[in-house]
Amino acid sequence: MVSPDGARQKWRFRTKIFGPLAGVTLVAVLTATFVFYLGIQRTDEASVARQVRETRQAINLSIDKLAKEQELVAAWDALVVTLEQPQLDRQWLNTNIGKWLYKLFGHDQVYILDVEDRPIYAAIGGEQVSGARFRTIQADLQSFIDAVRGRIHHRNGPHDRNPGQPPATNNTLLTSERMVHESGMVRINGRPAIASVMRIVPFTDTVHVQPGREHLIISVQFLDRKFLKDLASLNLIDAPRFSMSPVKRKGEEVLPVTSHRGEPIGYFFWHPDLPGSMLMRQTGVLTIFTVLLTIASMALLARWLWRATSELQSTLIELQASEAQAQHLAFHDVLTGLPNRALFNDRLKQALARARRGERVAVLALDLDRFKQVNDTLGHHAGDALICEVAECLLGLVREGDTVARLGGDEFAVILSDCNPEQVEAICERILAAVREPFSLLGHQAFVGVSIGVVNVTVDATDRVDVLRKADIALYRAKAEGRDNFCVFTEEMDESVRLRGAIEADLRDALASGTGLEVHYQPQVGGEGYRVVGLEALVRWRHPTRGMIAPGQFIPIAEETGLISDLGEWVLREACVAAKRWPNLFIAVNLSPVQFRVAGFAERLIGIVRESGVNPSQIELEVTESIFLNGDDYIRRALAMLRASGMRIALDDFGTGYSSLGYLRQFKIDKIKIDRSFVQNADQNADSVAIVAAVANLGQAMGITVVAEGVETPEQQRFLSAAGCNGMQGYLFSRPVPGDELALLPGLA
Ligand code: C2E
Ligand code: CA
Ligand code: CA
Fold it and tell me: Does the beta carbon of 623 lie inside 6 Å of ligand 1?
């Protein structure tokens, strides 16, 4: 199939290159051919004109020649004397005139007339014949005779011929001027001939003839084959012939011949010498070859040009295509084909411009809830497939003018045009419901959800960055509120975010200056009589203006901002100081999952403990189950390394997370801390009792210490010790207190 581009290119090539080229070639070839043929024709015409002149000249010369030959006998004393004799010597005449003129010059008929124009001698073909034969031709030659006799105007006289003037049509007499004669073309008995009639005069003064009483001699030469042959060989005329009919044969040229009286007597034909045609015959093949070569060269040139332009064109098309592709790539996500962040920003700018003019616009920030799990458990291909399916799903739920973009990873964003808050909420509900449905990915079913942050753009909210920030805040809130839901941004959220920002900055300062942060210690009891066996280090922050801030408020901020690493290491250093102070107690330190993600984390903790000179076995590290979720190798290695250094590992808040007993086998754990929710529900909830008992049994079986947290009442204490717990921690024994106050506790002095 020819693409429209290809067809257009072909058309352009035809009109712009091929057409003119073919035109120029055609004109050049036609002009050259025309000039060539014109040259040939003109050359031939000139040649024919010259030959006509020459042939006419040749005929005139033959007439002249006839007269000259005749003159040899006409001006002869002996002939005059012979003719004056009373008894005519015909024998002499025959020998010296008739035979002689025939044999020597080919005069076909010779006649001699007396003063009265009576024939006294006649010879045909050199043989004497009866004078009566003259009568048969007399009529044809009468005008010649009359002219010579002076009865009519004599045309061959000296006064007729001016020097330099061309001779009369059929008569040129070059003989001596005193020879009165008449000669020319004539038709005799219907046959074309040349004839000459001359007065016979003495050659010398010794013989006299009375002027006007001369005899006449007549010579006739027919234009027969022999005459023509001589004419041809003498004048280089090719294939001459004489005919009464003017019809030309092929390749012949014709010259009409007229008598001296202007009557037509026939046509002289010959094959003209045509140098132009000959040249054409000789060079014709070469010429045709040259023309063909020229056309072929032009065709080759056209072909070459066509190829060159085609290549250029296809290069251009490729360039355009790759430019378009690059353009598309620059503004679209490769995986889903959705607009990327750059294009989204542009669309958002336009949407905000519409919002300024009063249109209701909403911006949605979306984040998939369990994308990481899908990626980790089913692989990256499944993760990619999930992203594509969600993209499809979102596109199906919004209107045509709306924008769905992928901002990266599992983050999407949507711009909804022309919709009120109720419609926005309805769309969010529909998105939530759709994404809640299981996705089938590469043969597996995956359950994910989505959290959505919504901003209903107001007329004055025109800053793109600000709108996106608000959408992110709402999204964060949606996630914090348990995910799989949407949250519409309110100004109050902005306030809490601002507060977080302030807390972050203050925490940074506190860590840098070492002021305001404290560690409180809560005892853990165990063994016979529930002695204090260890202390849990719990961080406290005495804020200069806000007062005491609970760890639940600032630990998440520290985790988000990465400050948790510095904070955790600071607490560990404090704990080491405490460990030295109470060498018989272990000190428990809480670790955040975020700390595990920082490279070299385990090495640094080991370094801190080693530097302090504390026996690592005195330090217990509390981790939560969430760190096992990733199943990453480096977490396994970090835990193993920490444990190998001599520190113990406790699983904190056991029962609130995934509570997979598999972890206990996979990772070497020294202690399980049952979450206080089980302890505090134990009196109302039978399940809690069963779970505590089961965990205690399991711990016993696996050699893992089991400790219950949040023990507040003696009843709880009794139930837990009955269930088989090895240790306890809770307000019943002590609240977390500053290190200095620990000395006041019974048994810790
Ligand atoms: P956690 O590790 O589970 O710590 C025990 C929390 O329970 C402490 O709260 C403690 O005051 C409280 N508690 C102890 N006994 C009782 C009781 O009988 N009844 C009740 N209702 N509560 C009791 P705190 O100090 O507010 O700490 C809260 C959480 O903050 C901790 O939970 C821990 O996850 C985190 N945290 C505290 N200090 C640090 C720290 O230095 N590093 C890290 N990463 N997290 C810390
Ligand atoms: Ca803890
Ligand atoms: Ca705990």
Answer: no
Contact 369, 447 (CB under 8 A): no
Instruction: Compute the distance between CA of residue 735 and CA of residue 729 in angstroms, rounded to an integer.
Output: 9
Q: Specify the pTM.
A: 0.51
- pLDDT for residue 172: 40
Give the least confident one: 361-370, 489-498, 587-596, 614-623.
489-498
Distance 589 CA to ligand 2 centre (A): 7
For 169-204, write each residue's pLDDT tens digit.
334 444 455 678 888 888 888 888 899 999 998 888
Ligand nearest to the CA of 620: 2
* Cβ 524 under 6 angstroms from ligand 1: no
Residues with CB in 5 Å of ion ligand 3:
652-653, 709
Eight-class DSSP state of 197: E
Read off the pLDDT of residues 642-693 as tens digits, 9 standing for 90 and up.
999 999 999 999 988 666 677 777 788 999 999 999 898 877 778 888 888 8
**CA-CA distance, 527 to 726, in Å (whole number)?**
7
| Tokens (6 digits) for 419 | 């919709």
> Residue 524 C-alpha to ligand 2 middle, in angstroms?
11
List of residues 6+ apart from 251 with CB closer than 8 A: 271, 272
Which is the closest atom of ligand 1 to the Cα of 673? 3
- SS3 string, 513-534, reads HCCCEEEEEEEEEECHHHEEEE
Pocket residue to mutate for ligand 1, from 563, 590, 654, most atoms within 8 A of Cβ = 590
